[in-house]
């Protein structure tokens, strides 16, 4: 006891000077490092256990979204402050990412070249331990995951200003891949140009979604200037870096990557502009305790068809979180519905409701059950 008091008196004295506080910080850092090393050794042990199990051979069984969601929720609950819950969760997101990379580095496909919002979303979902593989388009991300040349993919699903990303929904409908997670990003759009550019571009280029998210701003500030959609924001930034008469729209870090200067900041029409990105995988995710399930249903175009779909869900007390319809590509005036519900497909109430739904649908596919995101959206610039 006397020793502890002597130690705290010495610490109190150190707190009075910058050099003294730094001595204390150095000591804490040594302890954090020691604990991180112990955690990484446990991750090695986890890898050994998973490798022993024949069901756990693929990269898919090393990444455990349900466990990560549980760890992050617990950290938020335990957080004594003064750092806020999101901040400590982000720190632990990176610790788990580093431990996972130490167990088995994961390859993640996303829309490239480097400098897209999708790249930011992939890093938000997997931390900096994931190895990104850039693809020229969203269908190519699906193909890379399906072919097994990467472990996971990250694609944009829905934007708060522009609605669903049709190419993603159509690719989902046409593939066997599963949704394993989601991450929402605030999307702040920047107008960027070559450092030698004048004030009036010949053309403004960006991804079609980004051009649409800035439509009113562009009408007001650059009326009559041609707008051209290209495969990604970073492809647009690349074009602007090669031609001072081309301006691009995209995230700040695309300007940094391609040597451009930001000419106007946050030009999206809706300040709260947010995009939800999906994590695509090949294997189902186990329940975390707080999950959602994405469904794909098809019905023929006859009166009451949608009501017949929703009734078994509401009777089972299951919350419908989102409904989106897309034309069925193979039949005129028939529709497929993308429906998100609360709960995991392995929960009895959800499983029963899905069985009751099945006779009313031409097709019913569970696109995936996965944890409700635990960390609030980071800024997307
Ligand atoms: O618990 C596991 O299965 C682990 O692999 C460990 C760990 C972690 O660092 O906590 C790492 C990666 C997984 O995605 C989940 C958790």
Explain the layout of strands and helices.
Layout: H1 2-14, H2 18-52, H3 65-78, H4 85-103, E1 107-111, H5 117-126, E2 131-135, H6 138-147, E3 152-159, E4 163-164, H7 166-173, E5 178-186, E6 190-193, E7 203-207, H8 208-213, H9 215-221, E8 226-230, H10 233-242, E9 246-250, H11 252-257, E10 261-264, E11 274-281, E12 291-299, H12 305-315, E13 320-327, E14 335-342, H13 348-357, E15 363-371
Parallel strand pairs: 1-2, 1-3, 7-8, 7-9
Antiparallel strand pairs: 3-4, 3-11, 5-11, 6-9, 6-10, 12-14, 12-15, 13-14
Bound molecules: prephenic acid.
Give a verbal description of the structure.
It comes from Guyparkeria halophila. Keywords: Amino-acid biosynthesis, Aromatic amino acid biosynthesis, Cytoplasm, Isomerase, Lyase, Multifunctional enzyme, Phenylalanine biosynthesis. It is found in: Cytoplasm. This is Bifunctional chorismate mutase/prephenate dehydratase. One of its GO terms (molecular function) is prephenate dehydratase activity. There is one protein chain. With about 375 residues, this protein is α/β, with parallel strands linked by helices. Helices cover about 40% and strands about 25% of the residues. It is built from 13 helices and 15 strands. Strands 1, 2, 3, 4, 5 and 11 form a 6-stranded mixed beta sheet that branches. Strand 13 and strand 14 form a beta hairpin. Helix 2 (about 20-50) packs across helix 4 and helix 3 (about 65-80) packs antiparallel against helix 4. The longest helix is centred in the N-terminal third of the chain and has 35 residues, at about 20-50. The radius of gyration is 24 Å and the shape is globular. The termini are far apart. The model has no long low-confidence stretch (mean pLDDT about 90). The protein binds prephenic acid.
């Amino acid at each position: 006891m006397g020793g502890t008091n002597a130690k705290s008196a010495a610490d109190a004295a150190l707190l009075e000077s910058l050099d003294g506080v730094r001595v204390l910080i150095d000591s804490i850092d040594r302890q954090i490092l020691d604990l991180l090393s112990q955690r990484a050794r446990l991750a090695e042990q986890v890898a050994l256990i998973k490798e022993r199990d024949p069901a756990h051979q693929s990269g898919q069984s090393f990444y455990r979204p349900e466990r990560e969601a549980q760890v992050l929720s617990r950290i938020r609950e335990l957080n004594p402050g003064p750092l806020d819950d999101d901040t400590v969760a982000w720190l632990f997101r990176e610790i788990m990412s580093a431990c996972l990379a130490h167990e088995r580095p994961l390859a993640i496909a996303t829309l490239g070249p480097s400098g897209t919002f999708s790249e930011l979303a992939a890093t938000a979902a997997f931390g900096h331990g994931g190895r990104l593989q850039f693809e020229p388009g969203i269908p190519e991300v699906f193909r890379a995951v399906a072919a097994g040349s990467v472990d996971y993919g990250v694609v944009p699903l829905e934007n708060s200003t522009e609605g669903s990303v049709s190419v993603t929904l159509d690719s989902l409908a046409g593939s066997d891949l599963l949704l394993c997670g989601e991450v929402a990003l605030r999307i702040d759009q920047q107008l960027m140009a070559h450092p030698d550019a004048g004030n009036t571009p010949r053309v403004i280029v960006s991804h079609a979604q980004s051009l649409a998210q800035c439509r009113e701003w562009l009408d007001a500030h650059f009326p009559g200037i041609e707008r051209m959609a290209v495969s990604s924001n970073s492809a647009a930034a690349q074009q602007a870096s090669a031609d001072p008469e081309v301006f691009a729209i995209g995230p700040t870090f695309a300007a940094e990557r391609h040597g451009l200067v930001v000419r106007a900041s946050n030009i999206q029409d809706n300040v709260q502009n947010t995009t939800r990105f999906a994590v695509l995988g090949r294997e189902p995710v186990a329940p975390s305790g707080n999950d959602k399930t994405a469904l794909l249903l098809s019905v023929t175009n006859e009166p009451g068809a949608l009501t017949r779909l929703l009734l078994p869900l509401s009777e089972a007390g299951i919350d419908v979180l989102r409904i989106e319809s897309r034309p069925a590509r193979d039949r005129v005036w028939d529709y497929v519905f993308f429906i998100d519900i609360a709960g995991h497909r392995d929960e009895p109430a959800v499983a029963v409701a899905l069985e009751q739904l099945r006779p009313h649908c031409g097709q019913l596919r569970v696109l995936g059950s996965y944890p409700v995101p635990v960390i609030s959206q980071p800024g997307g610039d």
